[in-house]
Write a structure and sequence with these properties.
6-stranded mixed beta sheet; 22 helices; 4-stranded antiparallel beta sheet; ABC transporter transmembrane region fold; Rossmann fold; alpha/beta
């Protein structure tokens, strides 16, 4: 997992290098300031230092600071040097913290942006089987959690490693016997913590999924708040959320207990070893005479100073398990194949027709569409009717290649759409559906969606007028610059539909898909929207999905789908003459006596 995060570090290698250098310098000044205790104690008590490699290195510096005739002046000079060393160390620690914080934030930003960009390229099928809450949890929460890997494993851990390494150099220079005892700490702690770390990784992985479930429940209830209130389901939704929240809290408590057990284990083991070092060191001072008292005190000070970075390093893996589990979920998204744009031909217009040639499509084992063939010529309206689940929406989704056909072909002017680039194919297609999508942006930017600077204000206004939307837009507080709120909640259903039609009119696509565009509107709103649709239809090839048969009576061709097959086709008049599915649907909607009924 660490290896997979490395590419996100490379663009910020200078920040990483600066953090490492600052940590290294801080560790040097830290140990150096502690070792100055030896000459300070010798001057204070008037004793001589036992020779060792370190005393040989320190002697010229101590002699330069010593004033032979004034012991207090010598002590003052050493104290001043200690203060300077500590000040420099803390300046480097501060600088390291600044560059490290910037490093982790920019790496997190790049990771978050990479996941979001990848989401935009994933096929529609992935979104239909993945809950929105899970997607949001991975995009926002998991990227933030992954930041801890950088914080712990790179910035803070390197500081600890640098301090430990430099401390060990000093310790070996002072006494290799005592240093070998100190080295027992690291492998002992690693061995003690391995079973704990494996449990933590699994636990954090489960918690990530449970958090996604919690987010999904909240998101669904908020999005469907009208239904919740209308159904009196507040208590039901509260209980559903509370159950998921309790499950997540219990999981967090279990993992927290495991994570918190790392500190007492490591501290106890390290303290036992420190006491053993104290006992052996006292023997070297009092019996073997290989160390003096000042060196032992300094040695023990450095060892105790190492306990904190050792503790931090021992906890890195425990803390990092949550981040690594989150990173694993992020890479599950990044590893999912994106939409395959097999097309090589860019198409800018439709000249003749759209043809479905024996098209079969399946989401899994069972086909949703079976051997569907149809021809929609330029300027024609093709209506698709039938019961829910008959395959109407799936059929039109194959035109812009939201899904790829299982067998057969969809042709645009005789060219297989799989040979046309996705960008150019979708630029030829406009969609107006019952569930109008508006963004928390201005009216103007919603009409000219994703096209900054492409259209003039006059063009946007002309599209709004044609969609019967200009009057209500001007009545808004800031007109075309009014912020609509999330999903356009400030507008009625009819107003949202007219903005969607204005968007389609502005982009001027030659192929138009209307998916139940007026089914949820009142009579007046439907009238205004239908007028706008009539303008939108002019000169375009239109596919209309409708339950209201009154909206498709003037269609060039009506296809009746049942079980994924086209069971009837013809004009409105032709289909009424046949005593088939369309005639029965028409009778049900208009209160006529069903075909075959006894008077």
């Amino acid at each position: 997992m660490y290896r997979r995060l490395l590419p996100f570090l490379r663009p910020h290698s200078w920040r990483l290098g600066a953090t490492i250098l600052c940590n290294l310098g801080a560790a040097l000044f830290d140990v150096f300031s502690i070792t100055l205790l030896i000459p300070f104690l010798h001057l204070l008590f008037g004793t001589q230092s036992t020779d060792n490699p370190l005393s040989t290195f320190q002697r010229p510096l101590v002699e330069a600071l010593t004033v032979p005739s004034d012991q207090m002046a010598s002590l003052r000079n050493i104290i001043a040097l200690i203060l300077v060393s500590v000040a420099l160390k803390n300046a480097l620690v501060w600088l390291s913290g600044q560059t490290g914080a910037a490093l982790q934030e920019y790496v997190t930003r790049d990771l978050r942006n990479a996941v979001y960009a990848h989401l935009q390229r994933l096929p529609l099928a992935w979104f239909t089987r993945t809950r929105a809450g899970q997607i949001l949890a991975r995009l926002l929460t998991d990227t933030q959690t992954t930041k801890q890997v950088i914080t712990e494993a790179i910035t803070r851990s390197f500081q600890s490693v640098a301090l430990i390494v430099i401390s060990l150099v000093y310790l070996f220079a002072t006494s290799w016997r005592l240093s070998l005892m100190a080295l027992v700490v690291a492998p002992l702690l690693i061995a003690l913590l391995q079973p704990l770390l494996r449990k933590l990784r699994k636990g954090y992985g489960r918690l990530g999924n449970q958090y996604g479930d919690l987010t999904s429940i909240a998101q669904e209830a908020i999005a469907g708040v009208r239904l919740v209130k209308a159904s009196g389901a507040e208590a039901w939704e509260t209980a559903r959320f509370a159950e998921a929240s309790t499950r997540y809290a219990k999981g967090m408590s279990r993992v927290g207990r495991l994570a918190l057990s790392a500190q007492p284990i490591t501290e106890t083991a390290a303290t036992v070893i420190a006491m053993a070092i104290l006992w052996v060191g006292a023997r070297e001072v009092l019996t073997a005479r290989t160390l003096d008292g000042a060196q032992l005190v300094t040695f023990l000070t450095v060892v105790m100073r190492m306990l904190q970075p050792l503790k931090q390093l021992s906890q890195v893996q425990a803390v990092a398990q949550q981040s690594l589990a989150a990173a694993g979920r992020l890479f599950e998204v990044l590893d999912h194949p994106t939409e395959q744009d097999t097309g090589t031909r860019a198409v800018t217009a439709m000249a003749r027709d759209v043809v479905f040639d024996a098209v079969t499509f399946s989401y899994g084992d069972e086909p949703v569409l079976r051997e569907v063939s149809l021809t929609a010529r330029r300027g024609e309206m093709i209506a698709l009717v039938g019961a829910s689940g008959a395959g109407k929406s799936t059929l039109v989704d194959l035109i812009p290649r939201f899904y790829e056909v299982t067998s057969g072909r969809v042709l645009l002017d005789g060219v297989d759409t799989r040979e046309i680039t996705l960008a150019s194919l979708r630029a030829l297609t406009g969609i107006v559906s019952q569930d109008t999508v508006l963004f928390n942006d201005t009216v103007r930017n919603n009409i000219a969606y994703a096209s900054p600077g492409r259209y003039t204000d006059a063009q946007v206004e002309a599209a709004a007028r044609a969609a019967n939307a200009h009057e209500f837009i001007k009545a808004l507080p800031d007109g075309y610059d009014t912020m609509l709120g999330e999903r356009g909640t400030r507008l009625s259903g009819g107003q949202r539909q007219r903005l969607a039609i204005a968007r389609a009119l502005l982009s001027d696509p030659p192929i138009l898909i209307l998916d139940e565009a007026t089914s949820a509107l009142d009579t007046e709103s439907e009238r205004q929207v239908q007028e706008a649709i009539d303008r939108l239809l002019e000169g375009r090839t239109v596919f209309v999905i409708a339950h209201r048969l009154s909206t498709v009576q003037h269609a060039s061709q009506i296809l009746v789908l049942d079980g994924g097959r086209v069971v009837e086709r013809g004009t409105h008049a032709q289909l009424l003459e046949r005593e088939g599915v369309y005639r029965r649907l028409h009778a049900l909607q208009f209160g006529e006596r069903p075909v075959g009924a006894v008077a």
